[in-house]
Amino acid sequence: MFHEVKIFDKKGNVKKVLSSKKLSNEYWNSFFHNPLSEAMKKKKGRGRKSEPNMNFDDENLDPSET
After folding, report:
1. Which region, left, alpha or beta, applies to residue 25 given φ > 0 means left and ψ of -120 to 50 means alpha?
2. What Å distances lie between residue 52 and 17, 19, 45, 49, 64, CA to CA?
């Protein structure tokens, strides 16, 4: 939800008014066309190596034999 924004000049007169609908449209357009989100969709890069699941005992912090 966006509220209407008024931009004033140095004299205090309203220079521009941005409607809530226009602000919302610009936000969501930039959200879906963000270069970072494009990279996330393509999933480029090295994958993470999976580490074996090790259970640790709380008392002595040694791996448990399970």
Report:
1. alpha
2. 57, 53, 22, 10, 13
Quote the tokens at residue 58.
């709380």
Whole-angstrom distance, CA of residue 60 vs CA of residue 35: 47
| pLDDT tens per residue, range 7-30 | 999 999 999 999 999 999 998 888
Sequence-distant (≥ 6) Cβ neighbours of residue 37 within 8 angstroms:
31
- The per-residue DSSP string of the chain comes to ----EEEE-TTS-EEEEE-HHHHHHHHHHHHHT-HHHHHHHHT-SPPPPPPPP--B-TTT-PBP--
pTM value is 0.45
